[in-house]
């Protein structure tokens, strides 16, 4: 069992908060990814759990036991560093054996465990080699081996594959997922790469400026972002955010972008969710796949001009110009032929999000 | 662009009349000349003397005696005693310097107030003249009014005239003077150990001692060995301190014997032979260290 609970954790340097009132519980066997831009406090949070960083207030509990005043060695956690932190003078074998030998395990036990871990990581052929002779991917495998060999209560990983090249990152990603499942360990993983976060996590915890923004499954944070920050941080290409006004027109509702630059017809349900004051200043969020395009005039669609076309193989990303604003759409590849062509667009209501302009918080309006 | 810039540089040098090669030679030649005149030539010339019975003080004809000087020296129990004394001194002095110097480096490698000032103050002994240090320590060791006996409450304990103590007294002075050197190199080595290795060791549940012996020591070893090589070579040919501080036969190290043989007894040929023996011994010891250093560096 290993459950990690953070309660009102705060850390600051002078007046600057690094972590602010952080509450997060990581369940046994759960894979939680701390996601955020650099400097958001995610690594500090991870290091605080490990005991490599002190916190100013709050509690960190592992299995209900407060550990914030314990040394890293007494917390029974393993940590995988971004730059591996392998012992350069020791062979891969000795690196992996280090945590076992440090606690004076017998030679036979050490050997059995190192071999078992090496086998599961497929690094048996590297055991006699020193880190300086290894590639980045292999070094990180050794580092993960060193973390796994002790069977710690929890694995903490600080951007473990952040310094590998793209192809290797993909391989390691699936390997990390496999290892997590095979080892039944609780894992906390830090990254700034949302693809990595979405593909690995049971739950994603998104941080910004030391404040936890949202915690949820990858599906939840993608479909129901709690504020503008999360909406724009998750998903690629980025979600379209446009200032809009809502206008009721007898039977229906209209969504007005800019100075009547585009008027999208909308279902009559929308006003029911809105308070009077939010009518005029709303932020509309819609992902590119929620902007539907057709090549010829169709009822319910409005004409727009294609401004930029990015062909990405499986699909195209088309930037549409609406007044001063741009709306990106994801279309089947080759549907929009040339820049400057007029196409017809509509918004998929089920995929629209509305945010308060001032606070940036989601209004939690779910249509369709 | 880079090619063009280089071309321009070449043209400019050519205009001055000196190519890069010429400039290099202008810098190197004086050094080579200096080395040949003051190092290489005497080295070879004294090798010649070591096979003769040449005495610089008299005008006797010089006879070639073959290996006789070497044979007699190596069979002389007094010379062996000189070597033993030297070895004792090297072990005590270098050992002490490593322990004190490395210890100081460990202390200074933490976050302490006035670190820069303390480091500078600790380095002062190293910058003094050997002769001055020798004379001062002679005063400090003085049996009747020296501050060391006063401070340690040893009464009129005799340091330098006591045959059993004199060598150690000189070694202590040497440690005082040169431990900062070991400290300086060790400090450079210690601060080069990346902090994330200590974090990894803490996570891996390694204790303080385990971390020190398995992480710190192996990673500082190469630079520490270099410090030891320097200090061993220096200690082996120590002359100033023992010569100034003590005239005891128990402090008659090989360099002092050599000095007496050459400039008091005027046995120029024989002393040249002894100098060669010392050279070979120092080279041999250094070689062992360098071999070990390379082994450590391979890791």
TrEMBL record, chain A:
Domain ABC transporter residue range list: 4-234
Gene3D superfamilies: 2.40.50.100, Nucleic acid-binding proteins (2.40.50.140), P-loop containing nucleotide triphosphate hydrolases (3.40.50.300)
Coiled-coil annotated spans: none
InterPro entries (UniProt xref): AAA+_ATPase, ABC_transporter-like_ATP-bd, ABC_transporter-like_CS, ABC_transpr_MalK-like, ABC_transpr_MalK/UgpC-like, Mo/tungstate-bd_C_term_dom, NA-bd_OB-fold, P-loop_NTPase
SUPFAM superfamilies: MOP-like, P-loop containing nucleoside triphosphate hydrolases
Annotated localization: Cell inner membrane
Domain of life: Bacteria
GO MF annotation terms: ABC-type transporter activity; ATP binding; ATP hydrolysis activity
Primary localization class, coarse: membrane
UniProt entry tagged with the keyword Ribonucleoprotein: no
GO cellular component, one term: ATP-binding cassette (ABC) transporter complex, substrate-binding subunit-containing
Organism: Bauldia litoralis
SMART domains to which the protein is assigned, alphabetical: AAA
GO biological process, one term: carbohydrate transport
Pfam families: ABC_tran
Family classification: Belongs to the ABC transporter superfamily.
Keywords, in A-Z order: ATP-binding, Cell membrane, Membrane, Nucleotide-binding, Sugar transport, Translocase, Transport
Bilayer topology term: Peripheral membrane protein
Name of the protein this chain belongs to: Multiple sugar transport system ATP-binding protein
Lineage: Bacteria, Pseudomonadati, Pseudomonadota, Alphaproteobacteria, Hyphomicrobiales
Automatic annotation (TrEMBL), chain B:
Broad class of where this protein is predominantly found: membrane
Domain called ABC transmembrane type-1: residue spans: 83-289
Origin superkingdom: Bacteria
Location(s) in or outside the cell: Cell membrane
GO cellular component, one term: plasma membrane
Keyword list, A-Z: Cell membrane, Membrane, Sugar transport, Transmembrane, Transmembrane helix, Transport
Transmembrane segments: 26-45, 87-108, 120-140, 165-188, 209-230, 273-290
CDD domains, sorted: TM_PBP2
The keyword Amino-acid biosynthesis is assigned to this record: no
Gene3D superfamilies: MetI-like (1.10.3720.10)
Keyword Cell inner membrane: no
Membrane topology classification: Multi-pass membrane protein
GO BP terms in the entry: transmembrane transport
Family stated for the protein in its record: Belongs to the binding-protein-dependent transport system permease family.
Record-given protein name: Multiple sugar transport system permease protein
Classification of source organism: Bacteria, Pseudomonadati, Pseudomonadota, Alphaproteobacteria, Hyphomicrobiales
